[in-house]
Design a protein that fits this description.
mainly alpha; 8 helices
């Protein structure tokens, strides 16, 4: 047997085998043909899809978006309050009614009616009108503020803001009708009872 060949193989230096990690192949783009291939545009679109329209992670609302949504909800709440009335309006109505009853103890019947019922009625109209004006202002700020981002995710907040604006306008109209006694005049006493 030929042992010299096997001895030479045993004496040969052995190189330890190292595992090469699985590294994904990188795409090398020539700068001159980069725009023609459109690869960079595709990568930017993929990043935008992952991060959202503003470069933020998808599903994370921005601070202006949250402020607009909160303002929309506040506008709707204030608009509803201007239509239905508030506890502070009722409290001020009762207070004015009590003051009217105290003041009208020795006046004419028309002055008594105006002090006991007319002034409280106008007080409710005043407070409902104030809430309506605030609702209109908040909704207008949400809808018409400068630099408003036109993102696709804020349609519901814009719809709420429009609803708050409409409710505020209706509340202001009703408060004006109440204040100027358009449909509801003060009750008048018959001439026989006034004398």
């Amino acid at each position: 047997m030929d042992t010299t060949k096997t001895d030479a193989l045993d004496k040969a230096p052995t190189v330890p085998e190292t595992e090469t990690p699985d590294v994904p192949a990188q795409v090398v783009v020539d700068p001159e043909t980069r725009d023609e291939d459109g690869l960079e545009d595709d990568l930017e679109e993929d990043n935008r899809d992952k991060d959202g329209a503003d470069g933020e992670p998808a599903g994370t609302p921005s601070a202006p978006g949250l402020a607009a949504a909160a303002g929309s909800v506040v506008a709707v709440g204030l608009g509803l309050s201007s239509l239905t009335g508030t506890w502070i309006g009722d409290l001020m109505q009762d207070r004015q009614q009590l003051i009217g009853n105290i003041k009208s103890s020795g006046g004419t019947p028309h002055a008594q009616l105006a002090a006991a019922y007319g002034t409280p009625w106008h007080t409710v109209a005043l407070f409902n009108g104030i809430f309506a004006v605030v609702a209109i202002l908040v909704a207008a700020v949400v809808l018409f503020r400068p630099g408003r981002p036109a993102t696709a995710g804020n349609h519901w907040s814009q719809a709420l803001a429009w609803g708050g604006l409409i409710l505020g306008a209706l509340g202001l109209l009703i408060a004006g009708v109440m204040w100027f006694d358009v449909f509801t005049d003060l009750p008048l006493l018959p001439a026989s009872s006034a004398s």
